[in-house]
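PROTOCOL LOG
Step 1. Enter all chains and additional molecules of the complex.
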Amino acid sequence: MEFQLDHAKDILRRTPATLTSLLQDVSDEWLFSNEGPDTWSPFDVLGHLIHGEETDWIPRAKMILEHGEQRAFVPFDRFAMFEKSKGKSLRELLATFEQLREESLQQLDELNLTPELLTKRGKHPELGVVTLSELLSTWVVHDLSHIGQIVRVMSKQYSESVGPWRAYLPILSR
Amino acid sequence: MEFQLDHAKDILRRTPATLTSLLQDVSDEWLFSNEGPDTWSPFDVLGHLIHGEETDWIPRAKMILEHGEQRAFVPFDRFAMFEKSKGKSLRELLATFEQLREESLQQLDELNLTPELLTKRGKHPELGVVTLSELLSTWVVHDLSHIGQIVRVMSKQYSESVGPWRAYLPILSR
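Step 2. Run joint prediction.
Step 3. Record the structure below.
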């Protein structure tokens, strides 16, 4: 499937509602359990997605459009959310993410991206040369991937409870 | 996390809304693409979940309560949905799944399960002896696992489009 801006937006605009369906008012056992030391709970993942809206996707798109390969992206802090989410409720985080995503999509529209602009190149601090359409494709896959992480982390809380069915559930061994 | 009926229902009642958020009105490219020959599209997965409501979870729970280990479950047909979903729209399948899940949860309540009943044993045609709480835990993980499958299948449509970012996205290699 080739990247198309409309297809990408079709996924990006859904993520806040999907996370709300999955997580809002769920009990703390599901929300705060993780996969073991140095892994993330569903609550942590949501904070990570918020930090991405603030510092990653649209800022990097603008960086590509304004500076091309001349200036590398600011490295993304994968742990910022542990401090930033402290003391917040899940409902607050969901509302924040929903609002930030709406603003991001608004800004994306305002960039008036043409097929030509989508081929513009920027510089990733580790990966080197990347294009704007690769950045936007990654935004989509990043959303889907973290929904996948959330359901995997939740699944694993029942790794023992499923008994012999574990053999049929590869998600429990990932 | 130990199995608790309330925790399990907390997840089971969410799945229809989560699938609606993820899939309703999404373009056909996202909905009908799969991971290659003999793999399932998001549309196929939804049909599989419907077939589970009809033939797997509550019927097996009743079988355990009524027949214990005396009678093995009817084997689950993992391919029935290819025929049954034919000609149906996604909206029809989502509505069917939502209604069937509501009925399943209603029936689950009507079983008036006690901690003692949850330890009752049944017979799986391949796995042998299983308990009712293991069946219900598996129902939860099965839901979460298929949400994970759907987002993985959708992600893979952009395996090439993400360019060098692929290195950071393990979901694309599963």
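Step 4. Note key features.
The first strand of chain A starts at residue 121 and ends at 124.
Chain A touches chain B through 54 residues (CB under 8 Å).
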